[in-house]
Structures are given as C-alpha cells and as structure tokens.
Amino acid sequence: MLQAVIDKISEQQKTCEGTPAWCVGEHLKDILRDNPDCAEIVLKDLEVKEMSIVECEKKIKAYADKHKKGSVGFVPPHEAEKIIKKFYGISTEDVSPGQVNNTGFIDLISFL
User: Which residue, 58, 74, 80, 101, is most buried by CB atoms nearer than 10 A?
Assistant: First the structure.
C-alpha cells in the first residue's frame, strides 16, 4: 500500500515539477514512510481533486501569507509538516523514546 501511495504522489508531482507543490509531495512521502499505516487513507484522499498535493500546498501558502514579515512569507518545516498531516488526517502525535511505534517495535535509536 505504501508503494501505491508513493506512486500516486509521484504521478501528481509530474504535473507540478519545480513548484512548492512538488516539495509537498516529497514531504508527504517522508511522512508516510514514518507512518505507513496512513497510506491507505492518503491514497484515497489523493484520488479526490480537492485533496491533491497542489491543494495541500495552498494551505501552506495561506500560512505563509498570514505570517509574512514585510514582503517575505516563510513556513518552517515543522509547521509545514503539521499542515500536511492535518490536511490528510495523519496523526500528529509523536512517539516518545522507548514507546512502541506503529510497527509494534521499540525504536532503540530514539534512546540515543
């Protein structure tokens, strides 16, 4: 399922190469690699035009426009991730060190 949603994102990225929406696609792929249980719902979302990576990027742009300093709008990566996760209904809860993650394994790297 994860590969199917990554392929769908890549397909959408072909229509927006070199744009912020393309970057949203890359960020979404990274998020899904960390949250593979969300792949099925995101794949269904991506089938709907209003849930495309282009539409998600518009939410990030709105944040940038709202938080402009002078003529410059910027969205920190952690804020962009929150917006993407909210848009696609991906949990924003972080797994704390030693806590069982969504794969059922303890992430020992998080202890370092």
Answer: 80
